[in-house]
Amino acid sequence: MTKKLLTAGLLATVVILTALAIITVLPRGSSKANQMGYVSTCPFAPLSTAMLLVTAGVLWVVRSYIRTRL
Fold it and tell me: Are 3 and 70 contacting, i.e. CB atoms less than 8 angstroms apart?
């Protein structure tokens, strides 16, 4: 796998994970309120949002390392 293809794939994954993190906190129909007290797309909104953003951040750091070091 080439360096350019790998960094492009990581960038796409980071964008998708960030979009999913935003979607989890949108006020949409769910059967019960999340841990913050409001009804959102995901009932585990604070935790799932944080996990998605941390994963996206780690992948961003890996992508930066690949672009600059390898």
Answer: yes
H helix or E strand, kind and range, residue 5: helix 3-24
Give the residue extent of every domain in the chain: 3-69
Angle at 46 between CA 44 and CA 52, to 5 degrees: 90
The encoded tokens of residue 55 equal 């994963």
CB atoms within 10 A of CB 5: 9
67 neighbors 59 (Cβ within 8 angstroms): no
Q: What is the average pLDDT value for the chain, to the nearest integer?
A: 89
- Burial (CB count within 10 angstroms: exposed 0-12, middle 13-18, buried 19+), residue 46: middle
Entry pTM: 0.85
59: enclosing H helix or E strand: helix 45-69
